[in-house]
Amino acid sequence: MSWLSKIFGGAPSEPEPLPAEEYKGFAITPAPQKTSDGFRIAATIERDGKTHHMIRADTLRDHDGAVEATMLKAKQVIDQQGDRIFL
Question: Which superkingdom, per the lineage (predicted)?
């Protein structure tokens, strides 16, 4: 962090955690990761106390687009793999 950012307010704050969305009994919490190119698709998928961290190589320029793409990808993973994602 540069000395100017320390003087004028410090580092930008982390975005608020996004709410989970229920889908076919799974809880999907989108968590796009900031990269130099934009935002990487990432989410946490949970069910019955089990957790799967989904991270994809896809990146999108804006945060809202990354959230939307994350939800679509997570739902696709659930449709294709179901409970096998926890193995």
Answer: Bacteria
- Do 66 and 55 meet the contact criterion of CB atoms below 8 Å apart? no
To 5 degrees, how large is the angle CA 22–CA 24–CA 27?
Answer: 35
What residue spans define the domains of the chain?
17-86
SS (H, E, C) 33-67: EECCCCEEEEEEEEECCEEEEEEEEEEECCHHHHH
Could you tell me the CA-to-CA distances from 56 to 10, 42, 47, 51, 68 in Å, in that order? 30, 6, 20, 16, 14
Stretch 5-26: mean pLDDT: 75
Yes or no: is domain 17-86 CATH 3.10.310.10? Answer: no
Report the distance separating Cα 39 and Cα 61, nearest Å.
Answer: 6
